[in-house]
User: Fold this.
Amino acid sequence: MAVSSVRPASVLDEADANIRRRWPDAAPSRITFPRVAGEPYQYQIRVDGKPIHAYFDATTGEILGTWELPWLDGIAGFHQNLLLPPPGRQLAGLIGIALFLSGVSGLSIWLFRNPTWRGVLRINWRAALNNSSWNRFSFDLHRSTGLVANAFLLILSFTGICLGFPDTFRSFAEAVTATSGARPARITVAQTAMKQPIDMYVQSALGAIPGGVIRELRFPQAANSPATARLWRQGDYRDEGSNRVSLDPATARVVAVDAAATWSPARKLASIPAPIHYAEWGGPIVKVLWCLTGLTPSILFVSGFVFWLKGRRARGKFATAASADASRVLVPR
Assistant:
């Protein structure tokens, strides 16, 4: 909790001043605004190249603490692009293609066996507890888990493919909708230093998107790049907002507006995979469901391997017994 009861004129500017006092050499990258009243502001900064997530009280601007888990940032980066330069995103997309084809082939094999729907979710737990038939149990677990998770795995893998090859999916969306899905041209500005109070950038962005709720303010990260505000409006696909306002860092003046309401059908279609893949809809329930779905490939691998190993051993024993019987038949008396 905040230790001060002071009510500053600008919470954001107070938080910015507190950052400068604690980390004089900090390079801010973005501010994430509270989704719910009372939640803190989150500032993402870099100090000596190290990312730090700092949280500030939404009323006083006092620092509440930091969140530093470099290993988790590393996992997120590995998931997105294998910690490689730009081609890493395409390599991750290729992994998505392999997972998608695996799901389709597994479903096809099951359907070609003319299954009975009554036994889809039937698992012989008693066999596992009594250690009487691990082979049957592993098969039941593999089949039931695979069928339940397969629909979700297909969704996650397909949306992952779209994120890995965005230009290809954008071309597909253009062909389906017969409209253009091109994004606006890149905006450049003369200076990249943020010279105005943060509230000025916020007010400029809010004025550019009537009825919008600001979710993020991103600081310029490259030369001649503008500051960018992301705003959410009713009907947006993404929780962080689909509307972008480019701002001149030196003056806080609006230089470009990218409103989702003006998007073509192709661009709207092309924007759907990201919020689905990142579970930005449905709340915590969908996030937990996506998390459990992510665990199923490991379950399928282990159960499938056990089933295959048991079958291989059984076939080996059968072949040995058959060979012994044949030898007894061929030996003269």
